[in-house]
Write a structure and sequence with these properties.
Layout (H helix, E strand, L loop, with lengths): L1 H46 L6 H5 L19 E5 L3 E5 L8 E6 L3 E8 L2 E6 L3 E6 L6 E2 L5 E2 L13 E11 L2 E11 L4 E11 L3 E12 L7 E16 L9 E17 L2 E13 L6 E13 L1
Antiparallel strand pairs: 1-4, 1-7, 2-3, 4-5, 5-6, 7-8, 9-10, 9-16, 10-11, 11-12, 12-13, 13-14, 14-15, 15-16
Length: 298
């Protein structure tokens, strides 16, 4: 019986030692595996560039794409190709504005609208500005044809503008200076406020009138016109021997003239006018006036 107990105890001891050895071996292997992972991770981190997170090495960088918004292009806009070596594009319609972009030879631009002798254009990269018409002498259309942008002239304006006039002439033998403020209602019809100062040897006259002007052929470069009006004539005698008083008489006006346009804003004119004074005396008086002048259109 004692022999059996010893055998059992010996067997239990051997089994316990074997189990302990197996557990220890598994723990050592696990520790070596963990240590190996730590070494590998540490080695990978050491190989990264300094100052750069590990996440940036794994992540794919996405570069944003910038898309220019296409502005609205009018239906009547025209696309042309630049034939000049370059075209200066200004920020506004005038030489006082700075040049902020240059359209080079072969580039495509849009002609958007015209203002006097400037054209608003749209260049590549959405550069919108103004170009002088005189700089657009070598531009070509879609078919390769030469495109001309005409300079504005008097035929472009038919109505709805003011103008100022100045003149010098002969008023019944006296030197006269005149000024006019007019408004063009239609291409054929305008109204004018007129003031004339005449300086003579024996008397001076001031004439204030309102007239209606009719141009039957407004788009002719040399355009005739007719006028009718009425107003007030103030005569101041220069006599010193006999005391006289200033006279104020109603005056009727009828005349004919001709204008020659030099540009869209400037015209020369020659005029013959007949002033018929309705005096309080027995006889009315008729005064003939010749004058030369010019009009400036605003």
């Amino acid at each position: 019986m004692s022999i059996i107990k010893k055998y059992v105890l010996t067997t239990l001891l051997l089994g316990t030692n074997l189990l302990s050895a197996l557990v220890f071996a598994d723990g050592a292997n696990a520790t070596q595996a963990v240590e190996g992972v730590e070494v590998e991770v540490q080695t990978a981190l050491e190989n990264l560039p300094e100052g750069r997170p590990a996440e940036e090495e794994k992540a794919n960088r996405i570069n944003p794409i910038v898309i220019d918004a296409q502005p609205d292009i009018p239906d009547d806009a025209e696309r042309v190709t630049v034939g000049n070596a370059y075209i200066n594009i200004y920020r506004g319609p005038g030489r006082g504005y700075p040049i902020f972009h240059v359209a080079e030879y072969g580039e495509k631009i849009w002609l958007l609208k015209r203002r006097t002798d400037w054209v608003k254009v749209l260049a590549p990269r959405n550069k919108t500005g103004w170009v002088r018409i005189s700089d657009l002498q070598e531009i070509y259309g879609e078919e390769g044809e030469l495109v001309r942008v005409p300079l504005p002239d008097f035929r472009d304006v038919d109505a709805g503008f003011f103008y100022l006039g100045f003149s010098y002439g002969d008023f019944a033998g006296a030197n006269s200076l005149g000024t006019t403020l007019g408004y063009q209602f239609t291409s054929n019809l305008a109204t004018e406020l007129r003031a004339t100062q005449a300086v003579g040897e024996f008397s001076d006259s001031q004439v204030y009138q309102m007239a209606v002007v009719h141009q039957p052929f407004p788009h002719w470069r040399m355009s005739p016109y007719f006028l009718l009006g009425a107003g007030l004539n103030i005569t101041s005698p220069n006599a010193t021997i006999i005391a006289t008083e200033d006279r104020q008489d109603t005056v009727m006006l009828a005349g004919i003239g001709i204008k020659t346009y030099l540009s869209r804003r400037f015209a020369l004119k020659a005029e013959y006018a007949n002033h018929y004074l309705l005096t309080s005396r027995e006889n009315n008086q008729e005064i003939v006036e010749w004058k030369l002048g010019f009009d400036v259109y605003l």
